[in-house]
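Field log, afternoon session.

UNIT: design team B
ACTIVITY: writing a sequence onto a fixed backbone
BACKBONE:
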C-alpha cells in the first residue's frame, strides 16, 4: 500500500504533466496544472483535472473544479503553483476562493508563487480557512516548469532556451555561413514541438539573412501554436520580402532595433505587418540584450526559444541569460571549414559544472541531444 508521500508525488506528477500542455499558450500567466483527488473505497481517484487555458484564463484550478463539481467537497487539490489570491482587472474568482467554496479539505502545492501579489498569501489564506496545506512536493520539477514565470516576476525578464544543431565535427553552417541540412526528420519534428511550448522564438538578423526562415510550427494540429517571432535587428536590415515579414499577418513578428536605426526602414516593415520596437545599443554597438529581454517581459513574454545562431547564443550565455542550452548533434560531419556551432565562450561555460548541469540527454532519430540547465 503506497504511503501518503508517494501518493502525493504521483498526483503532483500528473499535475505537472497537465501544466506542461499549456506552455507557450498562457502568457503572461504561468501554465498551472491541477488535479482534484477524492478518497474512495478503491483508494484515491481523480475526479477533476485541468490546466491554464490559452490567454491565461481560466486557471488550471478552475478547470479542475468545474470538472469535479460536487465531488470536490472533501477532496485534495494538487496544484503546481500556489493558488492565486488576488483579483485582477480581467475579473474571475481567485483560485483560493474557488478552493474554499469547493469544500476542499487538503491542498498539496508544489511551490510558492514568487509574484509579490501572492508570495505565500494564497497558502496562508487556505490555512486560515481550515484547509490543510502541504508545500514543496516535486518542487524542483515545478521550478523548472515555471521558470519563465519566476524570472519574469523576480528579475523582469523571460527565461531563455538557446538551441543549436551541429554536425558531427561541430559546425552549424558551411563556409561563409552557408545553410546546412543538419538535423534528421525526427529531430526536426522535435524542434517544432519545442517551439510550440514557448511564447516567442528569437533569432538574430544574421540568421534571417542567411536562411530566410519561417519560424512557425509546422506539425499537423499544432500550426495554431506558432509563437511570436522576434528578430534582433539593430540596423533594421530585415527585407520586407523575407518570409518572416510575409507571414506577419498570420503569426506576429516583432523586430527589435536600435534607437538610431533608420526610420524609413521601420516604416516599410510596419506597413508590411511587423511591429518594431527599439532598445539601446550596448558598448560593442550591438543591441543591449538585457534591455531587449526586459522589454519582451513587459509585453508579457515569459519563455523564449532562441534559434539565433552561435553568436547570439554565446552572448546570451556570457551575459547570464541562457537559462537552458539545447545542443543536438548529427552523426554526419561537414568535412570542411564552417561556422562553429558552440563558440569558445559558450563551450567554456557549458563545461563548468558550477554553472551548467546536463539535465537531459538522449537520442532522437539519428541525432544525439543534450540539455544544459544553468544552475548559477
Amino acid at each position: 500500500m503506497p504511503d501518503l508521500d508517494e501518493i502525493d508525488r504521483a498526483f503532483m506528477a500528473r499535475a505537472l504533466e497537465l501544466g506542461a500542455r499549456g506552455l507557450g499558450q498562457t502568457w503572461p500567466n504561468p501554465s498551472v496544472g491541477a488535479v482534484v483527488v477524492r478518497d474512495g473505497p478503491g483508494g484515491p481517484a481523480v475526479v477533476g483535472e485541468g490546466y491554464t487555458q490559452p490567454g491565461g484564463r481560466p486557471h488550471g484550478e478552475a478547470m479542475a473544479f468545474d470538472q469535479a463539481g460536487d465531488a470536490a467537497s472533501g477532496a485534495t487539490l494538487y496544484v503546481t503553483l500556489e493558488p492565486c489570491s488576488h483579483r485582477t482587472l480581467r475579473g474571475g474568482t481567485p483560485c483560493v476562493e474557488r478552493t474554499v467554496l469547493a469544500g476542499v479539505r487538503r491542498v498539496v502545492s508544489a511551490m510558492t508563487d514568487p509574484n509579490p501579489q501572492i508570495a505565500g498569501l494564497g497558502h496562508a489564506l487556505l490555512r486560515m480557512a481550515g484547509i490543510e496545506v502541504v508545500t514543496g512536493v516535486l518542487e524542483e520539477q515545478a521550478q523548472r516548469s515555471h521558470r519563465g514565470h519566476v524570472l519574469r516576476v523576480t528579475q523582469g525578464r523571460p527565461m531563455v532556451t538557446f538551441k543549436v544543431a551541429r554536425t558531427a565535427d561541430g559546425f552549424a553552417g558551411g563556409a561563409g555561413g552557408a545553410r546546412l541540412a543538419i538535423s534528421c526528420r525526427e529531430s526536426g519534428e522535435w524542434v517544432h514541438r519545442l517551439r510550440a511550448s514557448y511564447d516567442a522564438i528569437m533569432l538574430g538578423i544574421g540568421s534571417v539573412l542567411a536562411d530566410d526562415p519561417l519560424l512557425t510550427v509546422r506539425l499537423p494540429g499544432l500550426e495554431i501554436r506558432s509563437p511570436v517571432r522576434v528578430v534582433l535587428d539593430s540596423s533594421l536590415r530585415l527585407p520586407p520580402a523575407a518570409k518572416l515579414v510575409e507571414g506577419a499577418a498570420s503569426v506576429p513578428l516583432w523586430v527589435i532595433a536600435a534607437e538610431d536605426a533608420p526610420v524609413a526602414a521601420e516604416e516599410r516593415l510596419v506597413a508590411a505587418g511587423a511591429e518594431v520596437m527599439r532598445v539601446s545599443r550596448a558598448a560593442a554597438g550591438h543591441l543591449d540584450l538585457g534591455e531587449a529581454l526586459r522589454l519582451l517581459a513587459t509585453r508579457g513574454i515569459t519563455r523564449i526559444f532562441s534559434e539565433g545562431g552561435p553568436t547570439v547564443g554565446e552572448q546570451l550565455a556570457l551575459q547570464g541569460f541562457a537559462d537552458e542550452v539545447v545542443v543536438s548533434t548529427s552523426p554526419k560531419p561537414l568535412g570542411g571549414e564552417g561556422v562553429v556551432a558552440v563558440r569558445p565562450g559558450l563551450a567554456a561555460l557549458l563545461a563548468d559544472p558550477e554553472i551548467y548541469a546536463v539535465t537531459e540527454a538522449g537520442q532522437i532519430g539519428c541525432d544525439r541531444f543534450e540539455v544544459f540547465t544553468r544552475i548559477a
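LOG NOTE: The chain has two domains: 4-143, 156-374.
NEXT ACTIVITY: expression trials, pending approval
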